[in-house]
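Input:
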Amino acid sequence: MGARGRRGVRRKTALKAKRSAPRAESPLWEVFVQEKTGAPHEHAGSVHAPDAELALQNARDAYARRGPVTSLWVVEARHISATTPEDSPFLLGPGPEKLYRHPRFYKGAKE
Amino acid sequence: MTNAERERRFQARIDAGEKIEPKDWMPESYRRQLVRMMSQHAHSEIVGQLPEGNWITRAPSLRRKLGLLAKVQDEAGHGLYLYAAAETLGVSREDLVEALLEGSAKYSSIFNYPTLTWADIGAIGWLVDGAAILNQTMLTKCSYGPYARAMVRICKEERFHERQGYEIMRALAQGAPAQRAMAQDALDRWWWPTLMMFGPPDEASVHNDALMAWGVKQKSNDELRQWFVDLAVPQAHALPLAIPDPALRYDEATSHWVTGPIDWDEFWRVVRGGGICNRDRLRARREADEEGRWVREAAEAYGEKRR
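Output:
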């Protein structure tokens, strides 16, 4: 090692570098956060983790660094079933013919 | 349905102010642009930890150290929110991280400048986070739902970043002559790179028109830059420190501060890898990745055993 110490002999870092092994990817978990007792759990984002315990810890680090958070749920993303935009109009459409499900369909005391 | 018809409906939804969600049909170019923007944004948060991390062990008081630690932790968290949001577009976080490590992904050039003194931590919080917050405030209205929601979360948390930076600058600017000189020196070095953070001028920006039409952005680079200058100049005067721009003037007719010309050659030089710290930043990320490998592998093996 010369007078300049280790820095002097370090090779210059390349701006582009070929990377060897592909990275293993742990499962994706969706994170739901409750901000006060009695409130619903709301979707906050997602984390990667190999198991539920670490998923909760990662979720705590990422989505509960600031209060108030009273409860966290994590669920592996592959277990969530969701509607597709193509289904939605048929499954979820309010149906204009179903006005009788709303209070305004009926006459109250003042009408 | 033909693609042209799909695109017409997509644009109509955007024009009506609807949000686009991951499973909705979207043009391939919209998806590509969002992956580009969101991954660059995520990488910037991650690399953004490095210049400030440099000063955690040398913060001048416990109060300053606590604030800086919390801020750097937030940046790691914000990088994760953004990778998570980008993943909803069908890319994998590991691929994005790989692209950063191999040097093919971009991140904000501002982080390729060195933090030479403690005053740089003040200047970064005040100017760099101040500039980022304006961009992110705009992006809370972005047409892509997951990106907009991540931005809401980030903006809520980042409000303290800018204030802790300004507080550092004020303490120095109103301190001893040497502290004052240190604060001025930091402003001198960070002012122009901060203005470049908003990206090339509108006439040279290749993505601007499409991003505006898609409701991804609501303001152009130059509009955001002007918004920032109008906020930052009076803040500098209040410290008081001098903006390092002899041509800076207030235009009565438009009620805007007008800056001198920005050195775009420098901007492109740093984007292309010629900044002072480009190599340092990549080396630090690669080393952190390598040193953390055993933790990832151990967690993976343990998870595997329990499945």
